[in-house]
């Protein structure tokens, strides 16, 4: 699991030690993600399955894509599909993914990069491995998170952020037992590169065997922790926690996460994807690729898509050689 790493975490800024008055968040819910298939048949784990929307707000959906080692000819992507009313945050841990939209945008993300697409008023979009990866096969592992937009932003013009892995803000714990990659939002005064319409924090954390992480967390945010791989415990009551599980936390000021002293040979550390945000607390009408506030708005989105108002599929696929970058 390469993502972005450093040779010596001890050169990084360190989190503060939390005092005895800190209110640690309890684990309200622990779920195991079921497996399924997306797009043209690539395997996913549905991380939010069975969790009430009230616990997820402002997040809508999270897929762990892979981890899978494809043989030559096997890599798969998605067909062209529409989006409206929310943002997709695609984080590539291993492998390469191309993306292209009906407005002429496109780019490539690879180890540790994030492609942040604000669909807003709507567009057509495709995500697929590049042709050379289809020919060669190889490791593929990533995440796609859907972030809701408030009513006032749902029909804004589409926009991209292309966040290279090296731009992530890197931190460690006082003893150097963890590598914290802040993709968006703020942790203990350290700001990540992602620009968000809905106030959120996203981070990828790697905890070495036996390491403990006490992480300050905004009290007005919810707190979701998804285990990508490895095993350990979550919460001050040390509930067992392993790859493919989601921990939904209750109120408080900090999270406590601990990696098991022994890990599997192919997963030498506990890898976690942390998400938190300020709840929007608006009605959600969600069906397929559209996330709106009312059923009437959903019907309008489908009508607009069928009428070609979300764009048309370009005649040719773009040659993707680099990141898209910000664009309005």
From TrEMBL:
Binding site for Fe cation: 81, 83, 125, 127
Keywords, alphabetical: Iron, Metal-binding
Domain Pirin C-terminal: 203-310
Cofactor: Fe cation
One GO MF term: metal ion binding
CDD domains: cupin_pirin_C, cupin_pirin_N
Residue ranges constituting the Pirin N-terminal domain according to the UniProt record: 43-147
Protein's UniProt keywords contain Iron: yes
UniProt cofactor note: Binds 1 Fe cation per subunit.
Annotated Pfam families: Pirin, Pirin_C
SUPFAM superfamilies: RmlC-like cupins
Keyword Metal-binding among UniProt keywords: yes
Family the entry assigns: Belongs to the pirin family.
Database matches in PANTHER family: PIRIN (PTHR13903:SF8), PIRIN-RELATED (PTHR13903)
Listed name of the protein: Pirin
Source species: Micromonospora matsumotoense
Upper taxonomic lineage: Bacteria, Bacillati, Actinomycetota, Actinomycetes, Micromonosporales
């Amino acid at each position: 699991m390469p993502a972005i790493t450093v040779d010596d975490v001890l050169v990084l800024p360190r989190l503060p030690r939390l005092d005895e008055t800190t209110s640690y968040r309890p684990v309200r819910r622990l779920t195991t993600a079921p497996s399924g298939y997306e797009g043209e048949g690539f395997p996913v784990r549905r991380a939010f399955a069975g969790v009430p929307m009230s616990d997820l707000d402002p997040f809508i959906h999270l897929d762990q894509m892979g981890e899978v080692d494809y043989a030559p000819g096997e890599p798969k992507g998605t067909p062209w599909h529409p989006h409206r009313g929310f943002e997709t945050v695609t984080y590539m841990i291993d492998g390469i993914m191309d993306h292209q939209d009906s407005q002429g945008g496109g780019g490539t993300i690879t180890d540790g990069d994030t492609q942040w697409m604000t669909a807003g008023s709507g567009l057509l979009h495709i995500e697929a491995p590049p042709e050379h990866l289809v020919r060669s096969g190889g490791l593929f592992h990533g995440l796609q998170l859907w972030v809701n937009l408030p009513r006032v932003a749902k029909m804004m013009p589409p926009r991209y952020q292309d966040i290279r892995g090296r731009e992530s803000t890197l931190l460690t714990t006082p003893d150097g037992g963890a590598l914290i990659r802040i993709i968006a939002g703020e942790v203990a005064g350290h700001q990540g590169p992602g620009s968000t319409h809905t106030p959120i924090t996203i981070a990828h954390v790697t905890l070495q065997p036996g390491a403990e992480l006490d992480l300050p967390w905004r009290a007005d945010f919810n707190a979701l922790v998804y285990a990508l791989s490895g095993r350990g415990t979550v919460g001050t009551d040390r509930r067992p926690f392993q790859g493919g599980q989601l921990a939904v936390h209750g109120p408080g000021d900090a999270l406590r996460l601990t990696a098991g002293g022994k890990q599997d040979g192919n997963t030498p550390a506990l890898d976690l994807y942390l998400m938190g945000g300020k709840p929007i607390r608006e009605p959600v009408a969600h069906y397929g690729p559209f996330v709106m506030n009312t059923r009437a708005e959903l019907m309008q989105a489908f009508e607009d898509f069928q009428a070609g108002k979300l764009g048309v599929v370009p005649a040719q696929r773009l040659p993707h050689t680099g990141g898209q970058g910000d664009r309005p």
